[in-house]
């Protein structure tokens, strides 16, 4: 048997991957057993190589394996970090699909690109719900906006009442300082 240094090739290929998900997929690559499968694979690779030569390159560093998020429970509540990963992947899919026309001359690559499912509303929803720091934004829902507005109005009223109390001369002897600290 001839040693083709297949494992060395896979290690080199893994180093070229933009994401951990890509590196994980490289570890699953196996030698194809039939000549037909090898030729089909070579044609597909040639299409994508031509796409790269034509500057149709994409950035996949933020691509994440989100499959575990869907395995445990069918109706999960996601934390900001998890929802963020889902939104990033959805956005990457949308970016890829938007460039489908650039692959029209590359039949096999175009066939792969056409399988991409876009879910732009996931990213839109994520951006509507969360601010850049991961906090739930007022824009998450009209009810939340109203609740937060009411809380702020109540806080201002309390602050005003306390400031008025501090200004009363009859309380002056009981006070050490004339400022309000909120905790």
| Cα-to-Cα separation, first versus last residue | 75 Å
The share of residues in helices is 55-70%
Uncertain runs are: none
Instruction: Supply the number of helical segments.
Output: 8
Q: How would you spell out the order of helices and strands?
A: HHHHHHHH
Count every beta strand, where a strand is a DSSP E run of 2 or more residues. 0
Shape field: elongated
Strand content: under 5%
**Which structural class should the secondary elements be placed in?**
mainly alpha
Mean pLDDT: 87
- Largest sheet descriptor: none
Radius of gyration: 28 Å
In short:
With 183 residues, this protein is mainly α.
Describe this structure as you would to a colleague.
Helix 1 (6-16) runs antiparallel to helix 2 and helix 5 runs antiparallel to helix 7. This protein is elongated. The protein contains eight helices and no strands. With 183 residues, it is mainly alpha-helical. The longest helix is centred in the C-terminal third of the chain and has 26 residues, at 142-167. It is 57% helix and 0% strand. The N and C termini lie far apart (75 Å).
Structural descriptors:
8 helices
What's the arrangement of secondary structure elements?
Blueprint: H1 6-16, H2 20-26, H3 35-53, H4 67-71, H5 80-98, H6 107-113, H7 120-129, H8 142-167
Helix pairs in contact: 1-2, 5-7
